Amino acid sequence: MTADCIFCKIVKGEIPSTRILETDEVYSFLDINPINPGHLLVIPKKHFNTIFEIPDSILAELMPCVKRLSKAVYRAVSAEGINIVQNNYRAAGQLIDHAHFHVIPRFSNDGFLTSWPGKTASPEDLNRVKEKILNLLEK
Ligand code: AMP
Ligand code: ZN
Q1: Which of 59, 67, 107 lies closest to 84 in space, CA to CA?
Q2: Is there a contact between 31 and 37 (Cβ–Cβ < 8 Å)?
């Protein structure tokens, strides 16, 4: 628990939320400003700033919840697609520093991005970054 974290307060019931699912380690509720109706958030009940800090054992409970909830949202709002989005740090759009997964129902005419513009990269570029990543990959 972090004293001034909105999502910790939601888990504790100190701030109201539209609860959808709760397990020992996981809490899910509707996003208060949905991108489309049915947009919900899935969070670990314990406070972790980003995905980097969430223990694998908790992710192992959380990810099946994301999958179950995605299926239910997809059918509940007759969505045509689902985005699962997880932002880490400001540069990636994280506004709430309690790690969370967005489940966002999508429609072909909803006006939002369906893909990000890719940059061209040479085989050398790809290999250079591959080596850096492999050197830092934790066992
Ligand atoms: P992010 O930009 O990934 O940190 O997303 C934070 C999300 O939390 C946004 O989509 C907000 O609409 C949502 N949010 C903020 N406060 C609340 C709240 N009290 N209840 C539900 N969702 C919230
Ligand atoms: Zn928190």
Answers
A1: 67
A2: no
Question: Is 0.90 topped by the overall pTM?
Answer: yes
Q: Supply 25's token pair.
A: 């380690």
Asked about 100 being catalytic, the answer comes back as yes
Domains of the chain: 6-136 (3.30.428.10)
For ligand 2, the distance from its centroid to the CA atom of residue 15, given in whole angstroms, is: 12
Of 31, 44, 52, 32, residue with least CA distance to 104: 31
Q: 46-63 pLDDT, tens per residue?
A: 999 999 999 999 999 999
